[in-house]
Write a structure and sequence with these properties.
Ammonium_transpt; transmembrane helix; ammonium channel activity; mainly alpha; NH4_transpt_AmtB-like_dom; 2% strand; membrane
Length: 189
Amino acid sequence: VASAWRRAGLVHTWAAVLMGICAGSVPWFTMMVLHKRSSLLQKVDDTLAVFHTHAVAGLLGGVLTGLLATPELTTLHTHVPGTRGAFYGGGIQQVGKQLAAALFVVAWNVVVTTGIILAVGLVIPLRMPDEQLRIGDDAAHGEEAYALWGDGERFDVSRRAAARATEVGDQSVDQRLAAMGARGITVQL
């Protein structure tokens, strides 16, 4: 979605399909293969893979649009006359414009997100304490955030049953979570 949907009106149908295939495979490859091999990416706390699904896919879509945008469709959707992709006579200029726009978006996001994080950090802590982080989602919330069994993890029925148990010893799940510092409503399904 981040790669193709906004740009699909600027390219032919076959190019939109190609963009969709690239948008599904390239971010997956960066998330599942490159991320595991990169020591820099492994230091980033990106539990939802936002970098791969939005930054990689968005940059990929911008570059592919710079290559594949047709003059007929860009005339309908843009206010800049003569805009076309590199494969349609636009030269490398359009790809350069797409990369410059991506760099602007990256810089804007760094500045604005940093401001938001600093403001929120003044009100509430941004991370759980280390002892709660070591416990993990299964113990803190009663479920796993991602069950990626293809990564060598196995579904452990006993852990799941223990996490879902309503009573353990003399304490309920809510009492155990409260003792760990968890607040809010816990729904046991």
